[in-house]
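From: lab user (bench 3)
To: helpdesk
Subject: output format question, protein + RUQ

Hello, I'm new to running complex predictions and I'm not sure whether the block I got back is the full result or only part of it. Here's what I submitted:
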Amino acid sequence: MKHSFLKLLTAILLLAVGFSGLTSCKPKGTQSAAGGDAAKAYVAPGKYDEFYSFVSGGFSGQMSVYGLPSGRLFRVIPVFSVDPEKGWGYSEETKPMLNTSHGFVPWDDLHHISLSETKSEHDGRWVFGNANNTPRIARIDLKTFRTVEIIEIPNSAGNHSSPFITENSEYVVAGTRFSVPMGDNQDVPINTYKENFKGTVSFIGIDKTSGEMNVSFQIATPGINFDLARAGKGRSAGWFFFSCYNSEKANTLLEVNASQKDKDFIMAVNWKKAEEYAKAGKGVKKQVRYAHNKYNESTHSATSEIKNEVLVLDPKDCPDMVYFMPCPKSPHGCDTDPTGEYIVGSGKLAAVIPVFSFAKIEAAIAAKNFDGTYDGIPVLKYEAVLHGEVQKPGLGPLHTEFDGNGNAYTSFFVSSEIVKWNVKDLKVLDRVPTYYSIGHLSVPGGPTSKPHGKYVIAYNKITKDRYLPTGPELTQSAQIYDISGEKMKLILDFPTIGEPHYAEAIPASMIMKNSQKIYKLEDNKHPYAALGDDNAKVVRKGNEIHVYMTSIRSHFTPDNIEGVKLGDIVYFHVTNLEQDWDVPHGFAVKGIANAELLIMPGETQTLAWKPEKAGVYPMYCTDFCSALHQEMQGYIRVSPAGSNVPLTFSTGTNLPATTPAATGAPSTK
Ligand code: RUQ
Ligand code: CUA
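Helpdesk reply: Thanks, we reran it on our side. This is the complete output you should expect:
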């Protein structure tokens, strides 16, 4: 439903773009893409898009997948939020994925996307996303477009500076937005912030083959707020750069109190060195609690494990590991250019864009060209590390992406525009308005060493007059600009799911060829799978009823079940026997305090149900799977607790069977 609604909106939008007269009621300065330019975003029916774009859902906790340049929505991937459309967080198999040290957390706020990289280029294997609120990082497998792992980040609160990735996917990072009291006694007065509150940045190791994550080490930091980050690459490989604000260490009214100083910092971390210190035993193991959840592709089930220890490195014991670079004023984005030589800081309240030079950073460190220390950590001299400043770029710079031709594209929230400038000479080359209030922006391959260029996509916070009104809240939106020429040209608007923060786009060819079509039945190791109608059965274990159910066009086996009693919990373990691409079956039972299941070909998923009233309950397939989809239904009878109705089940006969071979075979009862 949601999807077709969006498609409809997109269609309406395309029409509106075609008739520029329709936009004449817009405020002055509102731009629409005219005929020839709009055609660049057109992908004819039946044709594929050139890029996949993975877009964060912000407060929806999900990630969505669009085609570029068409802006067509392909999929919403549930990550940190339950999703009734796919039974995510409702099926017994997926519930453990949302477990945390705080218990089951059904929602979070996903801001940033990181595609895995090899040699500083996208490799199309995984995409990572962060949970801001209850700090976590998720890994999504791009063969199945499914979340396969979630790791909680201990000693963190507001995991915003995350999950940025190193150039060979050695690590994704997690910088804490809130500094918090850490250790044994966390019950301290809030106004003891300066003494008691500390920050961390965490390095989450990624296994080269399996992709499995693991908190390798954390670095203890002063009690400031980390905002964003980027790994060094090329020249600056082995380093990581984190933007920080609130160097004032304010704990109240931050809008004023964290904007006092003229400069905050970018924190430069030599992670290669940190890795060596960790190996050399320089860290201290701290007691913590965090969840590590994994989805097993052969049992189709997730497990959640609580871990208790983390290795923390203190910069005091680890010289030459961490430096601060002054950066005007409350930096947000912190981005490294394709060569890795330039690091761009975007001070939300700054009048210029400072660009730092890695060669100069190295030289300043070697010459100990410091401007004192901050909490014991050396502060490099601003002038010593500065490549230069982009003058009069715009108001409220937030984020910067790059094309392959030495140009940078910076988003400006306050002045609602994208500004193109040259990284070497820092000259502004072009600017285009966005509608309205752009946050992040994305160039395909933009954060890698080989950007594909072609487009820059603006991800906007406000749309006001761009779309048909939908009550008090309007859709957030994206806008695509063609950047193949010297001037940027708007070619398409498209609405998004939730609030888009960051997005990354990758050539379709890198993902399509690996896309999984089915789960092979012979590989199905789910303990409750029924790998054929003949294996369908219903088994009582105390007050648990396990239904080993199969679904195939167009029936369930069994589809009549009797002998359930009040007080029982019924587990429907439904195996979809199809071995054809794109033939999921759904499953739902009337009155169930849960969602539906959506079971992929060859997969087994489980819905748990505790009936509260005696009676007969219909159950049916929720996904239109064939001409006889509407016939794909059945009944389950629930009797009072003391009843002596025997446990029976069948398909294809009015007589209930008592033996496991229930398909169609007349039974003796
Ligand atoms: S942020 S709009 Cu949450 Cu990435 Cu900059
Ligand atoms: Cu199966 Cu509809």
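A quick orientation on your result: The chain has eight helices and 45 strands. Let us know if anything else is unclear.
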